[in-house]
Amino acid sequence: MLAGLFAQAAPQRFEVASIKPNPAIDATESVTIEPNGGIRMTGYRVINLILGAYDLRQIQMRDQIIGGPSWIFTDRFDIVAKAEGALTFNAQGRNPAEAVAMMKSLLEDRFAARVHTETRMMRAFAMSTVSRDGKLGPKVSATTADCPKYGNGESAPSVVQTADRWCGFRHVPGRVDGRYVTMGEIASYFAANAAVRRPIEDRTRLNGRYDFSVEYAEGADADAGNFFTAFREQLGLKFDTVRTQVPVLVIDHVERPTPD
Predict the structure, then answer these.
(1) Do 108 and 18 meet the contact criterion of CB atoms below 8 Å apart?
(2) Which of 23, 42, 175, 203 has the fewest CB atoms found within 10 Å of its own CB?
(3) Domain boundary assignment for the chain
């Protein structure tokens, strides 16, 4: 009786799952949610499966990943899995929490993945608003985006992502646009930029979602000052160099997947 009261809920798992190597070195990582609990992932590297399944959005740079064999950063896999029953989503219709939990179990069962996080002192950038009152620049505003959704318990997108209806980040030479993004997501996205190449800690204290567009010089003739000036003048955001405790992901163990 008491053992039952204190027993932990069993981990969520896919009913069936197939994992196969994808030999294309330049495959685009993509995921499709199918009717009746199906999920199809193409061209995924194991490191990105780990980051997504363990919700490690603060791991922004390769320097924040300790250990693990080199193939988890290069080899790609296709995964076809089926949950028992339809997958459900959050209120925004964008996050299938059940599938994320099942992917964590899949990594542990089929890749023998064991990971943990800790913190280490590292050089980083602190991103904050230029204005003390938190006012942002002319090219960022509270979001007006109508994002693609999976709806209330639906398994297929109820809004088609088109050239005019999308959310996330888009990068063309010299410009990055963002829709329906948080300040934390902006920090994570730009950490790997050639002008930055350090973890970025969000210190804006802004909790909303935003649309933005920023233009800056890129290429061999560009300098870091141009990037930081663009952020200051267009978005009202600044970057200060700091030494701070930064989260790191430690890969304790991982193996190539067991055969189907």
Answers:
(1) no
(2) 23
(3) 13-119, 121-246
Structure token pair of residue 73: 């950063």
Record the tokens describing residue 11, joined without a space. Answer: 């981990």
The residues, ordered by sequence, that sit 6+ positions from 196 with a Cβ below 8 Å of its Cβ are: 125, 190, 224, 227, 239
Distance CA(226)–CA(28), nearest Å, equals: 30
| Distance in angstroms (rounded) separating the CA atoms of residues 239 and 256 | 40
pTM for the predicted model, two decimal places: 0.79
Over residues 37-55, the pLDDT tens digits come to 888 999 999 999 999 999 8
Cα distances (angstroms) measured from residue 150 to each of 29, 32, 34, 163: 19, 11, 10, 18
| Amino acid at residue number 163 | A
Q: Are 260 and 106 in contact (CB under 8 A)?
A: no
Residue 53 and residue 13: Cα distance in Å, rounded? 12
DSSP code string of 70-93:
GGGGT-EEEEEEE-SS-----TTS
